[in-house]
Amino acid sequence: MIPVSGATSVVGIIGRPVAHSLSPLMHNRAFAHLGMDWVYVPFEVREGELAAAAAGLRALSVKGVNVTVPHKTSVLPYLDELTPEAAAVGAVNTVINRGGRLVGDNTDGIGFVRSLREEAGFDPRGRRAVVLGAGGAARAVAMALAWAGCERIVVVNRTESKARALADAVARQGAEASGLPLAREALAEVVAEADLLVQATTLGMAGNPGLPVDADWLRPPLLVADVVYTPLETPLLRAAKARGCAVLPGWGMLLYQGAEAFERWTGVPAPTTVMREVLLAALTGRRSAGGDDA
Ligand code: NAP
Question: What's the pTM?
Answer without folding.
Answer: 0.95
